[in-house]
Amino acid sequence: FESVPLQIMGHEKSQNLIGHGDCYLQIHLEIYDPCSQPQQGKLSLTDELHWADGFIIVYDISDRASFAFAKALLYRIRESRTGSCKKMAESSVFLVGNKQDLCHMREVGWDEGQKLAIDNKCQFCELSAAEHYQEVVAMFTKVLRTITSNFKVKEKRRPSGSKSMAKLINNVFGKRRKSV
Ligand SMILES: Nc1nc2c(ncn2[C@@H]2O[C@H](COP(=O)(O)OP(=O)(O)OP(=O)(O)O)[C@@H](O)[C@H]2O)c(=O)[nH]1
């Protein structure tokens, strides 16, 4: 297994396998939920913006105030992306409209959620955590796949990275060892 450390919002640590066929990736997942931390300013996200590889912003489709808060969080993330925080430009952001089972009490339209996601260059879905936990699993799987593929793209883009440096050292010292 290849091991990749991952950090996402939340406050739980676990190890997961992601992949298909014979190809699986072992992931160290840290989920950190800043909204459940009473001591923090809910909108600051100052530390998280520097270390998180991904953000899942969840609102309640039957509660417009939660959508407004999600919007404020997305703006906060977006302004960090355009600012000096280089890490943010590489992180993945997902907007999730929860409580789809309460669509008879809907206050936020699906198209509003999708538009907000498009405007902020993030992915979007609606689901019901209460009635269809599989949708939550599918969403997390998608988040992890996006983040791990971001890592792979970064690796490919880095010609003088650790892998190519190891190859270089091997080429130089490997040949010498043969001739000794
Ligand atoms: N109908 C419905 N209720 C849900 C769903 N998901 C969560 N809830 C309910 O919404 C309430 C809040 O859920 P939490 O998991 O505490 O959500 P939270 O975002 O952590 O809330 P905070 O504690 O305010 O941060 C609970 O009563 C849940 O049972 C859903 O998909 N449908």
UniProtKB/TrEMBL annotation:
Gene3D superfamilies: P-loop containing nucleotide triphosphate hydrolases. Its EC number is 3.6.5.2. It comes from Strigops habroptila (Kakapo). Pfam families: Ras (PF00071). The keyword Cytoplasm does not apply. GO terms for molecular function: G protein activity; GTP binding. SMART domains: RAB, RAS. Keywords: GTP-binding, Hydrolase, Nucleotide-binding. Belongs to the small GTPase superfamily. Ras family. It catalyses: GTP + H2O = GDP + phosphate + H(+). This is small monomeric GTPase.
